[in-house]
Amino acid sequence: MKISIVVTQEEHFKFAQEICDTIESSALLRGTGIAKRTPEYIQKKMSNGDAMIALADGKFAGFCYIESWQHGKFVAHSGLIVHPDYRSLGLAKKIKSKVFDYSLQRYPDAKIFGITTGLAVMKINSDLGYKPVPFSELTTDPSFWAGCKTCTNFPILQSKENKMCLCTGMLYDPKEKQKTPPRHPFNEAVLSRLKKIKQALFLNKLLSFVFLLKI
């Protein structure tokens, strides 16, 4: 089986619906929040050359696209997904690495960032040199945060005025001198504990709010 990872073109439009369905079903399976995408939006990214697709003998195997914010000051990688038939092959890391390198060429002065609840994505980002940061270091563009509206955790984000959520913010600044291995090595146990603490804090506040409503 030969898997190739290429910059998208209009010939890949036919995979847009399958990509959206795979992203959504994967999120539901993990029980995580998700910002939903439409086939039309995915096709727009494809036609602009702001996406990469993995193909296995002509079949959709994986995908990721690029978004730019504040006139190219920030860049984010979104919609990273691998088809269930091609998981456990290290394909997600290969796609992410390709998109990362492509972003550095296409947007050389941009800070690359992401928000995620997935430990696997956090590890990939950390291996590439990202560091965990507060949301205040990410883009302030309202349209980025508006993209979270379809996520089940959006009320939490709103209640914190876009300063905190269950997601962890991660940032790569090309102007910082990078080291090998990364300056901020991934510690799955620490990040997993942080995620649980966040969930517990938000749950306690929600229960308190419900209790007050009943009084």
TrEMBL record:
Tell me which SUPFAM superfamilies the record gives.
Acyl-CoA N-acyltransferases (Nat) (SSF55729)
Note the PROSITE patterns from the entry. Answer: GNAT
Q: Where are the transmembrane segments?
A: none
Domain (N-acetyltransferase): give its ranges.
11-151
UniProt xrefs under InterPro entries: Acyl_CoA_acyltransferase, GNAT_dom
A GO MF annotation of the entry reads: acyltransferase activity, transferring groups other than amino-acyl groups
What is this protein's record name? GNAT family N-acetyltransferase
The species this protein was found in = Flavobacterium resistens
